[in-house]
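User: I'm writing a tutorial on reading structure tokens. Could you give me a worked example: one chain, its sequence, then its tokens, then a sentence or two explaining what the tokens reveal?
Assistant: Sure. Here is the example chain.
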Amino acid sequence: MLQWLRKKVLDWSRPSSVEAELLYRQVAETARTPQIYEQYAIADTFDGRFDALCLVATLVVRRLTKMTEDTIGKQRAQELIDTMFADMDLSLHEIGVSENKVGKKVKVMATAFMGRVKAYGAALDAGDKAMLISALERNVYRDTDDMGRAKELANQVMRAASDLDHQNDADLLAGKISPQIDILDNGHA
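And here are its predicted structure tokens:
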């Protein structure tokens, strides 16, 4: 039954592409990695998972919108966002949020996501680690980062953004992120 509902929600959203669905699956898989929550002390809650998903999705959206060939990168980025929020809609239904409140919650989440895209993107584009740390402290840690994990996370986010910047445009447009996005500190410099 949930697969049927998932298909219906995806059908109701703006038309998405197979490539955007592939990108979203990879983004979601990365954001759901348990080690992210452990290593960076991100709350393993609905909000914490939303923040992790926003962070990883921002990296891909930023990369897609930087493509200069034509507008296909921006189109694919929008398709990825549409796919992500169709899944958010479904997730809210699955956890029992009433139909008349889902739209309002999705709107709030979309506004929060776009704010994060702007804040993280500006910091990454400027190569400004302090700005990124501030944005992560504010959004991921809700200004309660007592352990300084935002600095560690910022280092890895900057590395992951650089890795994505070097990936082939055609592969990304085809829905392939290779190597997979990695924001874990596995001994990277």
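What the tokens reveal: The mean pLDDT is 89. Residues 2-173 form one domain.
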